[in-house]
Design goal:
The chain is an alpha/beta fold and 330 residues long. The chain folds into 2 domains: 181 residues, Isopropylmalate Dehydrogenase; 138 residues, Isopropylmalate Dehydrogenase. The protein is built from 11 helices and 12 strands. The strands form 2 sheets. It has a 10-stranded mixed beta sheet, with helices on both faces. Strands 6-7 form a two-stranded antiparallel sheet. Helix 6 links the parallel strand 8 and strand 9. The longest helix is centred in the middle third of the chain and has 17 residues. The radius of gyration is 20 Å and the shape is globular. The two termini are 27 Å apart. It binds nicotinamide-adenine-dinucleotide, 3-isopropylmalic acid and manganese (II) ion (MN). 3-isopropylmalic acid binds next to helix 4.
Length: 330
């Protein structure tokens, strides 16, 4: 029987997790909850306790809500380090961030365990602070492969986003994508875009975009923009996959401290992450589709304040469970 490690995290994390576990229960999926993020720092001094990591490794999939506590910003040990550590430890280098709305169907494939996030960083003797962006050829090849495969299974078009006019690593990126496209994936139509103007394309012509592959930092920023043009962060889910081992499924949004504790966070991004988990993590595509449809229905009936409505987090959960129930009995 499959088992999911659930990491509620901080801020609105536990609030949206409460709705996600109702759905796991409805599908008969076993799970266990583990300390992670800011709450784990306060309780145990580390954002990614060893027993949490061990539970994630043992699980068939990991469901994470969000981390981040305002009181820990600027401190030497921060919740976000736990998130980066977990991604690295699980080797989930391919982060799939879909953004859908009427007429729009974008899939951003973000490299997740390299680049600026993981390059050497520090302070030189002269007091200069630095981060470095590094990519090896195999690191670019494996994420490009995912991008081509996903594009091939979708609309057949892949846009590789870089900053080749300035960045050295972008030259490697463009070279690898160009070569792999012509030799291994001749059926996928590839084009290349510079990240600054591509950000504008997402805002002005999102319906023209199919699949996107890009490096870690660009993917972080572009996926928030894509979320904004398709209904906001309350709706945007993601799946992070490696070559083997459990995948990590999490909303694109953070812990939203301004609205935490009020019961008004939109759980849709989290519930759509559960749908991605059912599909990519547990191989239950039909259940994933049923949950996607139930979330769409629930958002029509019970929109939260971020969507202009007045529904609470748990009312969305109620509507999702009702929609799942009626789909089953029909
Ligand atoms: P955020 O995503 O938490 O919030 C951005 C905006 O979106 C806020 O206005 C917030 O209220 C709104 N929002 C986000 N999720 C929502 C939801 N489910 N329903 C309704 N509104 C929602 O980003 P931030 O404010 O820049 O960051 C807050 C903290 O979260 C920081 O500590 C940051 O590091 C962390 N963070 C964590 C993750 C993660 O755990 N994966 C992702 C992003 C940010
Ligand atoms: C995200 C978040 C994280 C990232 C932070 C919290 C480390 O913004 O998942 O998009 O930058 O990857
Ligand atoms: Mn982000």
């Amino acid at each position: 029987m499959s088992h999911v490690a659930v990491l509620p995290g901080d801020g609105i994390g536990p609030e949206v997790t409460a709705q996600a576990v109702r759905v796991l229960d409805a599908f008969g999926i076993a799970y266990s909850k583990h300390a992670f993020g800011g709450n784990a720092i306060l309780a145990e001094g580390t954002p990614l306790p060893e027993d949490t990591l061990a539970a994630c490794r043992r699980a068939d999939a990991v469901l994470l809500a969000a981390v981040g506590l305002p009181e820990l910003e600027g401190k030497p040990v921060r919740p976000e380090q736990g998130l980066l550590g977990l991604r690295k430890e699980l080797g989930v280098y391919a982060n799939l961030r879909p953004a859908r709305a009427p007429g729009i169907d974008i899939m951003i494939v973000r490299e997740l365990v390299g680049g600026l996030y993981f390059g050497e960083k520090g302070i030189r003797e002269d007091g200069t602070w630095f981060d470095t962006c590094e990519y090896s050829r195999p690191e670019v090849e494996r994420i490009a492969r995912r991008g081509f495969e996903i594009a091939g299974a979708r609309g057949g078009r892949l846009t590789s986003v870089d900053k080749v006019n300035v960045m050295h690593t972008s030259r490697l990126w463009r070279d690898v994508v160009t070569q792999m496209g012509s030799t291994l994936y001749p059926d996928v139509a590839v084009d290349h875009a510079l990240v600054d103007s591509f950000a504008m394309t997402i805002v002005q012509a999102p319906e023209t975009i199919d699949t996107v592959v890009t490096e870690n930092t660009f993917g972080d920023i572009l996926s928030d923009i894509a979320a904004a043009v398709t209904g906001g962060l309350g709706l945007a889910a993601s799946a992070s996959l490696g070559d083997d081992g459990p995948g990590l499924f999490e909303p694109v949004h953070g812990s939203a401290p301004q609205i935490a504790g009020r019961g008004i966070a939109n759980p849709a991004a989290m519930l759509r992450s559960v749908a991605l988990l059912l599909d990519h993590g547990l191989g239950r595509a039909a259940d994933a589709a049923a949950l996607e449809a139930a979330v769409d229905t629930a958002l029509q009936i019970a929109p939260t304040p971020d969507l202009g409505g007045t529904s609470t987090t748990s009312e969305v959960g109620d509507a999702v469970l009702r929609a799942l129930d009626s789909a089953r009995t029909l």
